[in-house]
Write a structure and sequence with these properties.
By secondary structure, this protein is an alpha+beta fold. Helix content is 39%, strand content 22%. The protein has a single domain, classed as Alpha-Beta Complex (tt1808, chain A). Strands 1, 2, 3, 4, 5, 6, 7 and 8 form an 8-stranded mixed β-sheet that branches. Helix 1 runs parallel beside helix 4, helix 2 packs antiparallel against helix 3 and helix 3 crosses helix 5. It starts with 7 loop residues before the first helix and ends with a helix.
Length: 202
């Protein structure tokens, strides 16, 4: 089993997690000012990605630029990895490729202290990506624990590029913001990502 094979019920059962999806956990985060460069890029990229309608197009033309904007606002504090193998504990299914991982280290050679797992929703289904994201969050927590760098919480994101859903894992509770944030709320989406990147910084 790998991250991508998990659904919500399997994650809850295997890792003894509770899911809280009752509150808008990230709605209070203040939007940030985004660069004119990103605004101009997405004005062209979003319609193109939607027209192409492939996961690769959404990843390259929408998701990666948004993550890079958030990274720029926190430099040199964080690292960003795309399409990386993240094999933490194959015996528990904590293995596979992560679409994106964000770490609390400027080191781009190796993954250090990952804090956010980002899952590109397959078939444009946010709900369908939640199980995978939760499993990757457990993998992030275990990875850090193995290296003596436990964090109070880790974060997850499931996105189609056009819509963004945010999660956090603290103790054995996964908090899932019930709201999906559209890319039209770009300042808020980037603001939430920046808050995740900086909340657990050492």
């Amino acid at each position: 089993m790998s991250y991508s094979e998990f659904n919500i019920e399997e994650v809850k059962s295997r890792f003894k997690l509770q899911v809280d999806a009752r509150m808008e956990h990230f709605a209070a985060v203040t939007p940030v000012e985004v660069s004119d460069f990103l605004i101009g890029m997405l004005a062209e990229n979003v319609p193109l990605a939607v027209a192409i309608s492939t996961e690769k197009a959404r990843s390259e033309f929408i998701i990666a630029p948004v993550l890079l904007e958030a990274r720029r606002k926190t430099q040199p504090r964080v690292s960003l990895f795309s399409g990386v193998e993240f094999n933490v504990d194959p015996s528990r299914g904590l293995t596979g490729t992560c679409d994106f991982l964000i770490g609390l280290s400027p080191d781009q050679l190796t993954i250090e202290v990952p804090v956010i797992a980002v899952v590109e929703a397959k078939n444009e289904s946010i709900k369908g990506g939640l199980g995978q994201c939760m499993a990757e969050m457990v993998g992030v927590r275990e990875f850090n624990k193995q290296r003596g760098r436990e964090l109070p919480r880790v974060y997850g994101v499931v996105t189609t590029g056009s819509a963004w859903k945010f999660l956090s894992l603290e103790n054995d509770v996964v908090k899932v913001d019930p709201r999906e944030y559209p890319i039209s709320e770009l300042g808020r989406v980037v603001g939430i990502l920046v808050s995740m990147m900086t909340a657990e910084a050492r």
